[in-house]
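The protein record reproduced below.
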Amino acid sequence: MTGSTVFDKEMSLSTQMMFSTLQYKKSPTSGMHLYAIYSVILNLSAMCCTACNTAEYEIHGECCPMCAPGQHVLKHCNSQFGTQCKVCTGSTYTDVPNGLTACLPCAVCDEGNGVRVKHNCSSTSDALCEPLTGYYCTETQGESCRKARECSTCLPGQYIYQNGTALMDTVCKDCPEETYSDGSFMHCKPHTKCESLGQITITQGTQQSDAVCSHQPSNRGLIIGILVPSLLVVVILSALLWKKKKKN
């Protein structure tokens, strides 16, 4: 049944209701007249808006059957033929019953936007995009990610409090005192205590780097440095004295 036929029958019924309502004009309460007429108008509006059922679409006064998901309307129905549908081709789709004359274009997962294909487009579903590895999504559309940004890198003096995910950037925090991190640690490390190793501190530790230690300087070198020259002097003096005695 066409939309115009449904509307004509409902209009006839509503007209009868209107005449029946007008018989209340002799009533002493005029407010009842207005309320009844207003109710009829509301009924008319509701019937006009619900002429086609949920599986149909209205076009030129006709209620045409919708095309199935994965299809679009090639030719609208008429009094003799139903709706002619055509399958979506190329990178196009429809995911619900529809009265569209063309399928919808599939989304493009552009790596320039930091995303890649998660699920390919089909005639009945749009393409789904996801962030590249090491990126997090900054703009979504339904279940798909449209744009993503590279996850932040923690700076020296900070540690990774929480790794970045596909939905959230990396969270960094500063190292507390007497600890350090080069930015890649999950936890800050305590500075090395050089004295506990029997060494001396050459460079104090900072939030960005550990302390630098060195072994205690040995006295052996000092002793050797004094003894060797002394022995040489003794040897030379002994040789000179021996030569002098030999001449005498």
User: Anything to note?
Assistant: The CA atoms of residues 179 and 189 lie 5 Å apart. Residues 1-48 have pLDDT under 50 and may be disordered. The radius of gyration is 46 Å. DSSP finds three helices and 16 strands in the chain.
